[in-house]
Amino acid sequence: MKLYKIKKSKIDNKGRGLYASKDIKEGSKIINYIGKIITNKQVDESDKYDNGKPIYLFTLNKKYTMDGDFSWNTAGLINHSCDPNSQYDGIGLKIWITAIKDIKKGEEITCDYGFGFDKDYKQFPCKCRAKNCCGYIVREESRWRINKKFAMKNKKKLVNNSK
Ligand SMILES: [Zn+2]
Predict the structure, then answer these.
(1) 139 CA distance to ligand 1 centroid (A)?
(2) For position 163, what pLDDT does the model report?
(3) How many domains does the chain have?
(4) Mean pLDDT, to the nearest integer, of 115-123?
(5) With contact defined as beta carbons under 8 Å apart, do 87 and 98 qualify?
(6) What is the mean pLDDT of the chain?
(7) CA distances (Å), 68 to each of 61, 104, 108, 138, 141, in order?
(8) Structural domain of residue 54, as residue ranges?
(9) Distance between CA 35 and CA 17 in Å, rounded?
(10) Against a cut of 0.70, is the pTM above it?
(11) Could you say which of 7, 71, 137, 145 has the lowest number of CB atoms within 10 Å?
């Protein structure tokens, strides 16, 4: 029995997501993230990968990248959350979605997309509704940059209000 089923997502209201079809234990492999293996050189040289859909690209190692931008890649439906219950695990040239928490039947399966923080971060708003959501899809290690921006804005407001 598969550990997931495809349903309309609560996070991405235009799209679908994967949901746990039964209770999943922390550490379980849920689904394979599949795609086409290309060389990192191809990524650098092809227009297709020019900021179009970075969501689907995974660097596997120094030489290869997985392009998961295909309709047959069911794991590509997994949505980002700032408080994810799963992660992408690269094992050799394979990528597994592994549970990093116990997941209850019916919960949406989520991962941290791991986007870096750059000038384009505003293109990818996050609607995960986690308590720690920073408002954009940015990997955990870089979120402080956004939080800092928010904090600065609020600080300015406070200063203005006190005048
Ligand atoms: Zn979020």
Answers:
(1) 10
(2) 44
(3) 1
(4) 79
(5) yes
(6) 86
(7) 16, 27, 20, 19, 24
(8) 4-162
(9) 18
(10) yes
(11) 71
